[in-house]
Amino acid sequence: MKAKNVLVAQSGGPTAVINNSLRAIVETCKQYPDTFGTIYAGRHGIEGLLKEELIDMSAQSDEEIRLLRTTPAAGSIGTCRYKLKPHQEEDFDRVIEVLKAHNIGYFFYIGGNDSMDTANKVAKIAGERGLDLIGTGVPKTIDNDVGDSEFQLIDHTPGYGSVARYWALNIQNANEENAGSSPADPVLVIQMMGRKIGYIPAAARLADPNREMPLQIFMKESDMTVEELTDAVNDNVAKYGRSIVAISEGFPLGDIGETQDSFGHTQFSASKITVGQKLVNHLNENGIKARGAARQNVPGTDQRHNMIYASVTDLEEAWRVGRKAVMIAKEDGSGYMATILRKPGDLYSVYYDKVPLEKVANSEREFPRNWITENRCDVTDDFIRYAQPLIGEDWVSIPLVNGVQRFARIKPIFAEKKCREYIPQEYKTTKI
Predict the structure, then answer these.
(1) Residues designated catalytic
(2) What is the pLDDT confidence band of residue 267, given thresholds at 50, 70 and 90?
């Protein structure tokens, strides 16, 4: 059978390790030239497929592909937040048109639960329209919300280990600063990502597994009112003289003037006021039972693209799950997502497998309620045992040139366009 071409794309928020999955897909496909032909990347995810903007990854040098290992975020091939919705028949027609025009037989989509839905839709519509296409999902998300709450579909997603390590180390540093400045700044509020699920704010506890800091964690699942939260903070201040408050950006503090992306997700960093600032305002206006004032740290998107803090464990697993996706496509066919599952036992070890895309498409796990302490201000040791192995025990070695990081430089070599110009359906009715 003649080799068919490959299309890889990614969508949603980036991670520090996403490009190592991309690298694995490109390198592994190149190892099987009789199966996989030219490897293309959709520029800015599914939008690149719709616009026929296909970067030729086969034309990139091996050195630049290797450098994807320590190139964070999505600058290499781009990402998007464009969702294929059932009514967008024009978009589905266009997807098939472009796939056929470029002899695409393999489609790899890197992303979270919404991306797995897109991968599933593309694979299904191709099959319905007689296109021989193998669609495979590759998991990533810092939120760790893909899959089920029993950890049977996936144990954790690539990207989460690195954001967890980011916070473990940054909470340590913040505590050192606050310990010195607490007479003037008794409360330090640190806002962390996590729209609806608490895995990211929970990672603050990894900075202090022995519970020696005056650290409190408030996630959406804490199910507390602002008054209860205020009382808890003041209790901590009374006990320790200060408090480090790790709070999820999704903690319900009332109106923040939110905006939403095309998936319907709240864009907290694009809203009128942050949860962190709203809490600081509330604490300062209603009084802290100590001299001084509450202050805040809101790092924003730095936590999802900072390669300096990346986990070596996360980096390795991102590569291996990308490679597994290629082997699934080669050996098992269409309709699966590559997954990471944990082996039983006290020693951390994982294996790589496959799960049906339809089971993970738009899935959303919950943070286990039994991992939240009774006072709702912390997480239990069970969470620590789950998450601590994911952050690794060493620093990622990042190449430097003239003192700055050397990232991959993917050249803008595009496939020749064979189809008409096209504007994605949702953009035809959206004002710029």
Answers:
(1) 143
(2) low
Is 287 found in the same domain as 168?
Answer: yes
Domain residue limits at 26 = 4-159+309-363+393-429
Number of domains into which the chain is organized: 2
CA distance 112 to 357: 11
pLDDT above 90 covers a percentage of the chain that reads: 82
Dump the DSSP string for 336-374: EEEEEEEPSSSS--EEEEEEEHHHHTT------GGGB-T
- Enter the pTM of the model: 0.94
If asked whether residues 16 and 149 sit together in one domain, one would say yes
Residues within the annotated binding site for diphosphate?
A: 13
Which comes out higher in pLDDT, residue 288 or 400? 400
Binding residues for Mg(2+), as ranges, are 113
Q: How far is CA 370 from CA 130, 214, 306, 335, 377, in A?
A: 48, 22, 31, 33, 13
CATH number (domain holding residue 45): 3.40.50.450
Task: Determine the pLDDT at residue 196.
Answer: 83
Integer Cα distance of 432 and 62 in angstroms? 38
Residues of each annotated binding site: 13, 113, 141-143, 193-195, 249
Tell me whether residue 47 is in a domain: yes
Top-confidence residue, 410 or 266 = 410
- Exposure pattern of 59-93 as b/e (b: 16+ CB <10 Å)? ebeeebbebbbbbbbbebbbbbbbbbeeebeebbe
Element (H, E) at 139: strand 134-139
**Per-residue pLDDT at 254:** 74
Within a domain: 177: yes
299 with 336, same domain: the answer is no
Average pLDDT over residues 214-229: 95
Domain closes at, from 266, 286, 305: 305
Same structural domain, 61 and 141:
yes
- pLDDT tens column, 5-61: 999 999 999 999 999 999 999 999 999 999 999 999 999 999 999 999 999 999 999
Kindly report the CATH number assigned to the domain that includes residue 244: 3.40.50.460
